[in-house]
Amino acid sequence: MQLPAKGTPPPARDASGLATLLRTAGATDTVLAATGGWLLSERRSSPATQDGYIRDVSWWLWWIQARGMDLTDVSFIEADTYAAAMRHAGLAPGTRRRRLSACSSWYAYLQRADAAVRNPFHRMDLPKRASKPSRYLTEAQLDDLVMHAVAHQSARTAAIVAVLKATACRISELTGVQLAALGHAGDHWILTLTAKGGRPHRVVIDDDVTGPLLDAYLAERGSAPGPLFATRTGARLQRSYVQELLQRLASSAGIPDPHTLTPHAIRHSVATALLRAGEPLDVVQALLGHADPRTTQAYLHVDQLERSPAHRAGRRLAAVVARRLHSRTGTREPRPADIAQAT
């Protein structure tokens, strides 16, 4: 049995769709109630997090329904078969790991509610986490991105880019934040974001750049309740729209490889720039809203690139090239094409 092709919409996108899918799969009232409790628990209290878990679990429900199985009594062999089907369908390791982890969490909760015989995903071998490095920009490139938006784009675009740079917020925080989240604490203008797990995460809006750009945007937006960054119809922005916006902006600003730029890359870049500038780790951790400082330390990896022996080897090679050119033609600065001729 094969899974649908990549890009196929999930069988359920929200709680109502998941309930319908559960009933179709023969779920009892106990299973439905336990699933509701699972979604409302502390770790999944954020609506965006709930939607993600719903989508991931819905694929498993589609699978066992198509296989004609009892969702409360599935063997670990079937769970391994499902994992293999995802791998053969070409799903990324991160996607497979997320879906399997979601199912394991759900079954663990069903077991607590005496609504499932076992957790077929318990102690399963999960795909390894991807280790590819994240894209990041230099601080100068971040500044260029903001300046280009101010000079050539709408007030909303300029405010979006400025807030991303000033707060290093996650894309879910940016698209989900409401106008009512803007407020004051003493002399500071505060934006209260919703971090992972539904935790409130307060960040300061500076008075020099971000504040004035927000003012200019709000003068156009008006004071109607709703998302801070809204469409013309008042709906919240989509993640894909923000990413495409950043990539178009990076392209017009002359930033290399604009198609690889993501909202997370902006967050990564801000954290890296602050750490390299000497900001204390705990200060950057608080800005990013990380619960564990080890997560923040991951952004220090850029210094390893700066300290790479490749730079020192390159400088030694340049010195050799310069000496050979000097002995042949007199003193002049080496050009890239000279390297092949002199070595």
Automatic annotation (TrEMBL):
It comes from the Bacteria. Residues 132-312 form the Tyr recombinase domain. The keyword ATP-binding does not apply. Keywords: DNA integration, DNA recombination, DNA-binding. It holds the Pfam family Phage_int_SAM_1. InterPro entries: CB, DNA_brk_join_enz, Integrase-like_cat_sf, Integrase_catalytic, Integrase_recombinase_N, Integrase_SAM-like_N, Tyrosine_recombinase_XerCD. Residues 29-111 form the Core-binding (CB) domain. Belongs to the 'phage' integrase family. This is Site-specific recombinase XerD. It comes from Nonomuraea africana.
